[in-house]
Amino acid sequence: MTEGMVLDIVTEGLMTIILVAAPPLILGLAAGLIMAIFQTVTSIQEPTLAFIPKILAVLLALVAFGPFMLGQLTWFFSQVLESFMAFTHPRY
Q1: What distance in Å separates the CA atoms of residue 46 and residue 39, rounded to the nearest whole number?
Q2: Taking the domains of the chain in order of start, what are their residue ranges?
Q3: What pLDDT, on a 0 to 100 scale, did the predictor assign at position 49?
Q4: Which of 34, 61, 86, 90 is the most exposed place for a label (fewest CB within 10 A)?
Q5: pTM of the model
Q6: Residues 6+ apart with CB under 8 A from 19
């Protein structure tokens, strides 16, 4: 296995992590921002009030984007296995 192959696997791994983590993080961030604006407008300064909408947004993202996230992880894992098979068995 050459350095280029290792760098390709690491690069694809990082891109997969970003693609899989982005939907829940973005929706959680949006829910937190909306709750912060709501708390500012209504002058409610309860720190625990923002947790429930954030948790619900992340759960909604996991349900909505779950198949996409699982597909990305499955594709990456199959690519890693294929590259290992090509390394251990040069005839593939």
Answers
A1: 8
A2: 3-88
A3: 84
A4: 90
A5: 0.80
A6: 69, 72
